[in-house]
Amino acid sequence: MAGGRKSKAAAPAHPQKTLVLDNGAYTLKAGLVRGGAVDEPVIVPNCIARDRARKIYVGSDLEKCRDHGEIQFRRPVEKGFIVNWEAQKEIWDHEFFD
Question: Please, what are the domains in the chain?
């Protein structure tokens, strides 16, 4: 290319950290991998729960629940398939963006 621009081939970007996520029926497990080293995963319940006082607990909030009597669970995954996308999205939003 006379007088034109020379194109540079960009090297592929290698991520410094990779998020590994296991979206299970009962728990979400998430951890980071950095250059072969694996951080301790974070494990949270994959559910939305409501207690008898009608207080809502999403995912990791369930640890704050003191009264487990008459608690109702809504689990977005059944038999390995997401069956309630709205609930699963709410859990993801809460765990990753709140």
Answer: 17-86+93-97 (3.30.420.40)
Q: What is this structure's pTM? A: 0.74
The DSSP element (H or E) to which 43 belongs, if any, is: strand 42-45
Q: Tell me phi and psi for residue 30, to 5 degrees.
A: -135, 140
Counted residue by residue, the chain has a size of 98
Which tokens belong to 38? Answer: 């694996």
What pLDDT, in 10s, does the model give residues 22-31? Answer: 999 999 999 9
Q: How many Å is the Cα radius of gyration of the chain?
A: 21
Distance CA 87, CA 57 (A): 12
Task: Tell me how far apart the alpha carbons of residues 88 and 46 are, in angstroms, rounded to a whole number.
Answer: 8
Which tens digit of pLDDT belongs to each residue from 49-67?
Answer: 998 888 999 999 999 988 7
